[in-house]
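Table S2 (continued). Query chain:
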Amino acid sequence: MNRTSFTIVLACAVAAAFCNHARAETSTKPWLDGSGLLPPRHNPARVPPATAPGTTDDAAMVPAVPLAALTQEAILLFDAGSQSNRHYDLVTCLDGLTFGFGNWPQAEIGAFFSALMMDAAAKAAVIRRFAEAFEADPAAWAAFRRSASLTQSGATQDAVETGIMRLLVSAPKKNSPVRANTDGTCRAQAPVSGAFYQTHRAWLLPAVRRAFRDPDVVAFQVRYWEQDVITPAIKHQQLLGLPADGILLMAFYESNPGQVPTLQAALKKKHAPQTLRAGGQSWQWNAPPSHLGSVTIEDWHKLLVWQAMCPSSTNKFRIRSRNIAYFSKYLSHQFILPRERKSNQTTVPDAGSPENCNPSLVKMRKTS
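Corresponding output:
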């Protein structure tokens, strides 16, 4: 068991309440095609089972690879929106390139593929799948060979490995200002200098879209994401004294620490913040407002962190889908927001309402 997996298992052992209501692991195998590839356009936590490959029923879905319950719950929340695009085979032009279920940007290419090429199973899989893609698409192989300055005429595994090391492990370290449409197409149709996707799309799309459906590559993506997001989330949840499901809130934070500057500054100094800003003003971390009555300090901390993550500008204001899903599941039974609705017996906050991010407008929900 690697260090990341041990940390997550330990978190579940300590926070049994969370792991008990998170999705349980299943022994049902995921559907694989004749080449042993997972279905396209799915996240690692939810794919059709081998027994029902055509199903669209969420309740029937199974993990693509073995997952800790905590990791599975986090992935499902990150992919809660219809446009979240947390697919393991994602390749789009945003930021020059955005790829994988972790939505890693262009600046992450080198670190990601360096780690992948040190993982024996993932390395073998990605080389094999790239080679298969190039054998099926001679134009893609020609583009890859040209870009990597390869002398080999055929897509041998040695040639593919050399190309991956040259093009991906040694890839650009900066993002590129390219925006993507909701369907993944690029707004800038002409190539943008420094944009990896637009420069290399002829080979990148067929190769990555195939390789990233291999179970060994998906399993690597999960481990890489756990180390990058879940492990520090557990550490910071414990430092802040948040309840167990606060790990999920902190996972949202870890994906973009700059969204809560005051919290970021405090965590760098390894202590809880004295205040956090939400709804245009600062709120005391350890002093819940009097209008919330008997709220526990733990619930106040969760609410305040959730509201502090709201966009700071009201221009095109929108609360992220994962935050909406978290509130519905973990906060709605305690708090009433000023603008919310019922959907299938679930309380859903209005994502476009800045009022939902103001602690002074929150009410306690009466319990029977």
